[in-house]
């Protein structure tokens, strides 16, 4: 069992971010990484350990609780260091049962915890761990950066120690601003190869061992203000303010803060997306201006009203539109100056419940870890599997390589615009928004979305007429020109025509449309692929340990045996296309021959048909869900099956069973799902949930691009 201990040079180096980023990088390599924080340094007995909690939230994986700070210091004061280390070993062994590698967070040295440096060295020996030293850096001051690392290096036994795995520089100052891009998944293209090489050369002028095999530099992570942005709910806790209106306090982030002291006419430029406005409670003009800005679509971070007197309720009545739109408003008894001073001293630590920020930091750090170092680390007896992180990583990488054009009929929908901007800037796909260009620009401006210069925005009114004749021809007498003109008013139909005529490679819709609105034009204009008689769907279920494929959970209400066999074959091919080696279970309420009835017989017949058509596939059924997914149950109920207990593709007998199971697993296990992905069409069309997040849309666009690439291969 490989164990990696991260040891910080001191406080404020970003140790939590380093641990989580390294775990994510390992997950993207298909390695099951566990996390261990053996000792807490929080004096509050009831406090939840922050890194442990974030690990659980991010990776949907459990770990052990650290030894409390009170217990740790009590045992150390009684000269029971050996007992402390034995407890750490016990915790490590408990985690080792379920993981390929363990990332351990070491203690942070401080004036209070003078024991941390020595205990970290003892911990590395007790756990037989390789050590990564984590420190901050300034490319303009390499000597100071190196000295801090060397001080920690000496405490670990110096260069002669065989435990050194490398050094990770966090929060690096002096790098270009554009280096602080936030990726949607691990993206090694963001790694600053030239800057890292130059920094190593500067270090070596006074510290020759940096960047050698003795002490490799495994990452140079830039400092990023973007990753330090708190939510309004965090602001409230920091300044101990009271809510006038909670609104979207959990969602809105403070990019900048502005103190409004002069006449409002001189301050209007401060009312922009992400701005926190600070003003005295009696500044009615500021309150009204903030409300007006919010009503006009400018998503301010929020408003903090200061001084002892409360805001006037009559004035608040005039602000109801903004309040209903979610504008967070706080009131504090502090003076305006005191409030601004407190806000300038906000903690950079990620709150336990801020999963979104933690995910961004994790992806950011992982993208700056040296992949060659990772490869060397992973040389060993690991058993890679397609983890959710690896699935998402491969999804993005394959879509970038595919270079496909994807049309988005809901072109003026805010989430769709943001997702298109992300996909365009990261090269995931060439996105085409069907919308009035001025409408897209207005939404982007209000929400602070930067539109890439090469993002295509097409006004539907300017192109509809050119598709009328072709649509009549495709429908073969089922509608006339007048009817075609009317149907083409629907941008989903228009986008589908663009796809039918090979002007784009795929289509994604559904953020505001129903599944039927998205799928019906595809059935009519795209039709099924030559080898298939029906269209079906799959969801990729991102369980903590691996990715499952569920089909069909969205399209076919009650397929017969022939159709069910075809759905199984389609789903297996989809799994393969996305890096999953399919082991297909045909799900029923009965396993093998233990039950009888038309439903069981349908599944049994479908299994035989699928085996005959595709003898290359590993497929079995009927299997109950637990027999298919739980190894011990599978051994008991179907001991001769090669699929039972190991299935990763689950084919449900009907839509009622499939959709219910998918939603139950998604909600009960808090599982992220990607899909539904439609399969069996001549060209890829995919539907979104109307509650889809921006990241969901990004991944669906990526998935569509890969489908298009597979169909043209």
UniProtKB/TrEMBL annotation:
One Gene Ontology term from the biological process aspect of the record: acetyl-CoA biosynthetic process
Enzyme class: transferase
EC numbers for this chain: 2.3.1.8
Domain DRTGG, residue spans: 234-344
Claim: Electron transport is one of the keywords in the record: no
Annotated metabolic or biological route of this protein: Metabolic intermediate biosynthesis; acetyl-CoA biosynthesis; acetyl-CoA from acetate: step 2/2
One Pfam family of this chain: PTA_PTB
GO CC entries: cytoplasm
Domain Phosphate acetyl/butaryl transferase: residue ranges: 391-705
Entry's Gene Ontology molecular function annotations: phosphate acetyltransferase activity
Gene3D superfamilies linked: 3.40.50.10950, HprK N-terminal domain-like (3.40.1390.20), Isocitrate/Isopropylmalate dehydrogenase-like (3.40.50.10750), P-loop containing nucleotide triphosphate hydrolases (3.40.50.300)
Catalysis performed (reactions): acetyl-CoA + phosphate = acetyl phosphate + CoA
Alphabetical keyword list: Acyltransferase, Cytoplasm, Transferase
Family statement: In the C-terminal section; belongs to the phosphate acetyltransferase and butyryltransferase family. In the N-terminal section; belongs to the CobB/CobQ family.
Reported function: Involved in acetate metabolism.
Subunit structure and binding partners: Homohexamer.
Protein name stated in the entry: Phosphate acetyltransferase
């Amino acid at each position: 069992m490989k164990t990696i201990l991260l040891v910080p040079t001191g406080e404020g180096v970003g140790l939590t971010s380093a641990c989580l980023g390294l775990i994510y990088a390992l997950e993207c390599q298909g390695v099951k990484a566990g996390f261990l924080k053996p000792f807490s340094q929080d004096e509050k007995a009831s406090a939840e350990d922050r890194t442990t909690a974030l690990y659980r939230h991010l990776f949907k994986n459990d770990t052990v609780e650290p030894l409390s700070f009170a217990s740790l210091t009590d045992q150390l004061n009684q000269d029971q260091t050996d007992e402390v280390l034995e407890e750490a070993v016990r915790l490590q062994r408990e985690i080792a049962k379920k993981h390929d590698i363990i990332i351990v967070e070491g203690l942070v040295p401080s004036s209070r915890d003078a024991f941390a440096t020595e205990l970290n060295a003892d911990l590395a020996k007790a756990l037989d761990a390789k050590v990564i030293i984590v420190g901050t850096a300034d490319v303009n001051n390499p000597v100071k950066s190196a000295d801090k690392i060397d001080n920690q290096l000496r405490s670990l036994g110096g260069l002669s120690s065989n435990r050194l795995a490398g050094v990770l520089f966090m929060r690096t100052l002096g790098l270009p601003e554009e280096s602080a891009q936030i990726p949607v998944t691990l993206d090694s293209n963001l790694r600053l190869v030239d800057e890292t090489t130059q920094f190593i050369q500067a270090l070596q002028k006074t510290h020759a061992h940096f960047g050698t095999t003795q002490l490799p530099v495994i990452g140079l992570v830039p400092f990023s203000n973007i990753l330090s942005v708190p939510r309004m709910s965090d602001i409230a806790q920091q300044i101990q303010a009271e809510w006038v209106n909670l609104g979207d306090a959990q969602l809105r982030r403070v990019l900048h803060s502005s103190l409004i002291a002069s006449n409002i006419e001189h301050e209007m430029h401060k009312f922009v997306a992400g701005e926190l406005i600070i003003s005295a409670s009696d500044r009615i003009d500021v309150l009204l201006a903030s409300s007006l800005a919010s009503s006009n679509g400018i998503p301010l971070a929020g408003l903090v009203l200061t001084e002892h007197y409360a805001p006037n309720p009559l004035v608040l009545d005039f602000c109801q539109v903004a309040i209903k739109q979610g504008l967070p408003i706080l009131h504090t008894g502090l003076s305006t100056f005191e409030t601004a001073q407190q806000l300038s001293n906000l903690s950079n630590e990620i709150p336990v419940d801020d999963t979104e920020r933690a995910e961004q930091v994790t992806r950011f750090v992982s993208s700056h870890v040296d992949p060659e170092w990772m490869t060397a680390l992973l040389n060993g007896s690991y058993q890679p599997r397609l983890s959710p992180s690896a699935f998402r990583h491969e999804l993005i990488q394959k879509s970038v390589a595919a270079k496909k054009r994807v049309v988005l009929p809901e072109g003026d929908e805010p989430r769709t615009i943001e997702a298109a901007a992300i996909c365009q800037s990261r090269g995931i796909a060439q996105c085409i928004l069907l919308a009035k260009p001025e409408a897209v620009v207005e939404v982007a401006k209000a929400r602070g979305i930067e539109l890439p210069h090469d993002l295509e925005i097409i006004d539907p009114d300017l192109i509809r007429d050119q598709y009328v004749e072709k649509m009549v021809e495709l429908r073969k007498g089922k509608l006339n020109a007048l009817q075609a003109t009317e149907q083409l008013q629907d941008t989903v139909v228009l986008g589908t025509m663009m796809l039918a005529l090979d002007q784009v490679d795929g289509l994604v819709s559904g953020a505001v449309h129903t599944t039927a609105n998205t799928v019906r034009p595809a059935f009519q204009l795209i039709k099924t692929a030559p080898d298939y008689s029906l269209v079906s769907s799959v969801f990729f279920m991102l369980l903590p340990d691996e990715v499952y494929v569920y089909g069909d959970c969205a399209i076919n209400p009650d397929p017969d045996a022939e159709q069910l066999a075809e759905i199984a074959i389609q789903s297996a091919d989809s799994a393969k296309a996305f890096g999953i080696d399919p082991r297909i279970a045909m799900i029923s309420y009965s396993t093998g021959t233990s039950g009888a009835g038309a439903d069981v017989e349908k599944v049994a017949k479908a299994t035989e048909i699928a085996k005959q058509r595709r003898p290359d596939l590993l497929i079995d059924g009927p299997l109950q869900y637990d027999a298919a997914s739980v190894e011990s149950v599978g051994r008991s109920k179907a001991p001769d099956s090669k699929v039972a207990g190991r299935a990763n593709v689950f084919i449900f007998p009907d839509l009622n069973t499939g959709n219910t199971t998918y939603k139950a697993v998604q909600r009960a296990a808090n599982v992220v799902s990607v899909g539904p992905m439609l399969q069996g069409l001549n060209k890829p069309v995919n539907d979104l949930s109307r509650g889809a997040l921006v990241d969901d849309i990004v991944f669906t666009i990526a998935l569509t691009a890969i489908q298009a690439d597979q169909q043209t291969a």
